[in-house]
Amino acid sequence: MAMHRFLVVAALLASAFAIPGMAAAEDAANDHGPVIEAQEWSFAPPFGGYKQGQLQRGYRVYKDICANCHSMRFLSFRNLAEVGGPHFSPAAVETLASQVQVTDGPDAKGEMFQRPGRPSDRFPSRFANDEAARAANNGALPPDLSLMAKARAGGADYLYALLTGYQQAPADFEMTQGMQYNRAFAGHQFAMPNPLVDGIIPYTDGTEPTVDNYARDVSAFMMWAAEPTLEERHKVGLRVMIFLFVFAFIMFLAKRAVWERLHRRDHNHTA
Amino acid sequence: MAHPSTYQPTSGFGKWIDTRLPIPRVVHDQFMVFPTPRNLNYWWTFGGILFFMLALQMVTGIVLAMHYVPSAEGAFDSVEKIMRDVNWGWLLRYAHAVGASMFFVAVFIHTFRGLYYGSYKAPREVLWILGVLILLLMIATAFMGYSLVWGQMSFWAVTVITNLFSSLDSLIPGLGTMLVEWIWGGFAVGAPTLNRLYSLHYLLPFVIAGVVILHIWALHVPGNNNPTGVDVKTERDTIPFHPYYSIKDGFAIVLFLIVFAALLFYAPNWLNHPDNYIPANPLQTPPHIVPEWYFLPFYAILRAIPNKLFGVIGMLSAIAVLFIVPWLDTSRIRSTSYRPIFKWFFWLFVITCLALGYLGSQAPDGWYLFFGRAFTIYYFAFFLLIMPIVGLIERPKKLPGSITQSVLGPQASKPPSPRPPGPDDHVGVA
Questions:
Q1: Cα pseudo-dihedral B224, B230, B231, B236, rounded to 10
Q2: What is the spatial distance between Cα B209 and Cα B53, in angstroms, rounded to a whole number?
Q3: I want to staple A125 with a disulfide (CB 3.0 to 4.6 A). Which of A71, A114, A117, A145 is the partner?
């Protein structure tokens, strides 16, 4: 009865609206929507961690390719030695840091000076400021990559899809001058030229130097850069979960034992 | 429930303090032997869970504030510093962010429980009103806390929400603009805005804690409602809070923590928006500005109404209507379990809130807008039409004779009631 009354009211309310037409679901209906496939990553929850070798290769790709335009301002060279990260040896980190020149100062005379980098220095930025970066890149700003793996829906899957998503534009697709067609990018018109070519960076650990591997490795590296404490989080999480399950079981037994007193009393009085 | 004090100080210090500041007496009377209906189910454990969550948010928040820099230039970077360089900073920040979501999960369940079992009905109106006040303060606090990250979504959510006040311009030209600029401390959301949001975000939790004390006080005068909605009639209907409910609440808190920990350790960013990992940029508006998930139903109501001023009024009314619920419900009985008609409307209301939450996350056009409007109408109709009307026409099911009978069956009415074993009886405890 109540349901009937409700349906009548609902029908009246519905007719009070001009029922709007289906909004054209532009991107989903035709085949121009972004294509992002889920990949298998070593760092997937709940137990995953980073592969040290992959992060080291990924750093190589970042340093040799991405860093030509993109900064990573939240990272320092010392981070590269972290356990649960690329875990380079301290000596290797010293060497990597010393390869860059850093402006320091002012010295006792009030002058700024150049010195070789130290592990405590941040990764260098290619451009002095955003305006310089835009001027060098056809007006587009190459974003900072420190948090990129968390700042886009899809995370590492998206980054991998983007780096492997360059294609010839379909014949009926109108491209703006200077843009690249990328099937993973929303709208498909992407300002960054395809950065990866097979064999562009030599790998020394036997991994195939292919675009697919470069993309995979640098995406994993960017995930680490965005979430450097992921491994620790998963490890602590496991311990906390075990503790909580045991604790919950003990609490369950304690609760049952306490309420048993009440049930005993009820039994004595109703019997 | 108000009951004669049974506290007997034993030690010398106990007697001394009892005539000066009788905290031990209050703890004993209100939290140890406090007579509590014996039939409270697990939906009643969310009060304790909320108390725990408030404490957790305050503790993590106070430590985060030691490392956070409340300036437009430093805010975003200081959050990253907490994540990367502060010892256990990632745990503190994720616990605080996921904790806010879990806090809202618990408060929504707690509120729906109150609605279902008629816990707002006499003599618990003030208790309910204080609860709605806490909900309102929580919404304000969470909104301000989210802004402090100073990412793209933080910045634009502040811009959108504070701009709602400008709708007052359609009432008195200039009034809304003046108010918005006063809130911003300038002509746009900027450094002064962030500083005042930070100040208030630190202040409001303590205000909440104060209202929580009043809420618990208002609970302890009439005592707990219970799943039957039948008043406590004899001492046998109640059991002492400790150990029966202290252990039950404790167990529930641990179960709640399992869900909390699963999110915190395995999907800490699941409820977050990726755009908030992009630093705030006043010159670039994100394509879709969406609030945190717990505001989505209210956001859907705001956008369902075509006129901006009425949209704002609608959104605020969605909370404000809760204040008068005790007087909108005309039912003679409390618990929805014994209300065959109202039961359907209640669950439809739950579905409405969930649906509005989903619709709030979608762009308001086409069918989304249509359903947004339909559910908005039902949201208000539930309170303003269904509650008063159904209460008058409905014939409730037969209530159990007493709380004890609802638990033990009708034959359990006769025997005299010995005091149930409580914290003072050390039965079987080594």
A1: -90
A2: 11
A3: A71
